[in-house]
Amino acid sequence: MSVHTQNNVHVLVHPLVSHKLAILRAKETPPHHFRQTLHELSWLLAFPALQKLQVTPVEVQTPLESMMAETMCDPKPCLVSILRAGNGLIDGFSQICPEASVGHLGLYRDHETAKPISYYSSLPDKMETRQVILGDPMLATGGSAVMAIETLQSMGVKDIVFACLVAAPEGVAAVHGQFPDVPIVTAALDRELNGMSYILPGLGDAGDRIYGTVRS
């Protein structure tokens, strides 16, 4: 698996990533298959998202001899989900890195104004010293991502990676317009937003597709 990097945006390049994205994009994919495929793709996305995981030397006794190895630093990293769709991504990351703490930020996009609204926050202690992987399947306008990063930075967090399945150029510009040092790791950089701020070609509303809900 390779990663194409430009302007601090890291896009996964691999036939398996393309295959799983095709399943997620297809409108006929049912919720249970969508969820499973999202989890599988999140396992692949976890590797570049955790590429700079902080480790420390440790002596390990193998069945044959003693050796120096590396293990995660304390406090362990924190995986932060932007609710509700972010859970689908962060749950997969947590399976790859179960040692990490998990936090949640409740943000949603007002469908009239396309602006983010905050309604919930639950994060572990020592956030200011943790590496944070912030996850949301879609980076559309970037409003929720910007608000989430602002929230984390207000707590003293300095090491943040934003991970998503699909990003729009407008969302990338919004995030990097305020936080150019925050890496964006994604499986796809799509073409644009439509008039309703949905990503094109995109995959629809990730939250609705994960949970099988239909917006009235």
Structural summary, described in words:
- With 216 residues, this protein is α/β, with parallel strands linked by helices.
- The chain has a single domain (2-54, 71-211), classed as Rossmann fold, CATH 3.40.50.
- It has helices at 15-25, 31-49, 86-96, 143-154, 169-178, 206-211, and strands spanning 2-6, 9-13, 55-61, 66-72, 78-83, 101-109, 116-122, 131-135, 138-139, 159-167, 184-189, 192-193, 199-200.
- The longest helix is centred in the first third of the chain and has 19 residues, at 31-49.
- The protein is globular, with a radius of gyration of 17 Å.
- The relative contact order is 0.17.
Question: Key terms for this structure?
Answer:
6 helices, Rossmann fold, globular, 216 residues, nine-stranded mixed β-sheet, 13 strands
